[in-house]
Write a structure and sequence with these properties.
Strand content: 35-45%
Shape: globular
Number of helices: 1
Structural class: mainly beta
Distance between the termini: 20 Å
Radius of gyration: 19 Å
Oligomer: single chain
């Protein structure tokens, strides 16, 4: 038995009141699997990460931390649509990591989550990264991502920082009074990743890699807000609509986090089952 193995697969979705959502798996006879989950930055990170952005900035990231609240693996793309206000998809999940990972994304070494994962033997085609501090539906303004770095272009250097939360600052305005819950905050906290098919396997480890280079494709570092505390530094606003000079940068950074596309066109997020991380 693996360390911390939990009861058979029950989706411990982070929903109001902390209630688990039952009935997430039909009785197909699939074998139960358990696994240790890890998160990490890209394999070429080494305490910092330097790259050229599509807007022509030479960027060096010196700190990137992310709080991942949960991971879910599915057999099909979510059925969510504009009329579906739920972020939980009973019947689709074949793997879950219902607890947090506090990750240094400038560290390529896999970092263990606070809970084990479990599920059923199946082929995964889509995965979800939940950026939440608890209840996926609660209005929580706690930061889930922290960033520091510098950007340079045309001999101008822009030292910058960003603190990214997903709460009242990311709520979409109600455009239809008859449907006030059409755009719940939970939908802005879930990164959906289409993966090359892979199988959930017993006694293997799940590794999710998050590459922050894919977050900055549309960030114009020459149009950031001055840091109110440290002269000569800049801040990417923690808002979609800050009303400041850096408004577009704040919105574009958050969009980059959710879409996660590297300048090469590859996904900034990858999932894989691998032999024991601890033995490597």
């Amino acid at each position: 038995m693996r360390r911390g193995m939990k009861r058979p697969f029950v989706l411990a979705a982070l929903v109001a009141g902390g209630l688990a959502v039952a009935g997430c798996r039909t009785d197909t006879g699939s074998a139960i699997v358990d696994f240790l989950p890890y998160g990490a930055g890209p394999t070429d990170a080494a305490g910092s990460l330097s790259f050229a952005s599509p807007l022509g900035f030479d960027v060096t990231l010196t700190r990137v931390s992310a709080h991942v609240g949960a991971l879910y693996l599915t057999t099909a793309v979510s059925g969510g649509d504009s009329a579906n206000t739920s972020c939980v998809e009973p019947g689709l999940y074949v793997g879950e990591v219902p607890g947090a990972g506090n990750l240094d994304l400038l560290n390529p070494t896999p970092q263990e989550f606070t809970v084990t994962g479990d599920g059923t033997a199946a082929t995964v085609t889509t995965a979800e990264i939940w950026l939440t501090n608890g209840d996926i539906n609660a209005t929580d303004d706690t930061a889930v991502i922290e960033i520091e770095g510098t950007a340079e272009k045309a001999n101008e250097i822009y030292p910058f920082s960003a603190s990214v939360s997903i709460g009242s600052n990311r709520l979409k305005p109600v455009t239809n009074a008859a449907l006030p819950g059409l755009n719940p905050i939970c939908k802005r906290r879930i990164i959906t990743v289409t993966t090359p098919p892979f199988s959930t396997e017993n006694d293997q480890d799940l590794v999710v890699r998050m590459d922050p280079r894919g977050w900055f494709n549309s960030v114009d570092f020459s149009s950031l807000d001055p840091d109110p505390v440290t002269p000569g530094r800049y801040v990417i606003p923690d808002s979609d609509s800050s009303g400041t000079v850096g408004e577009a940068a704040g919105r574009n950074l958050f969009t980059g986090i959710l879409t996660g596309v590297l300048p090469s066109g590859a996904s900034a997020y990858s999932f894989s089952f691998v032999p024991s991380v601890a033995s490597n």
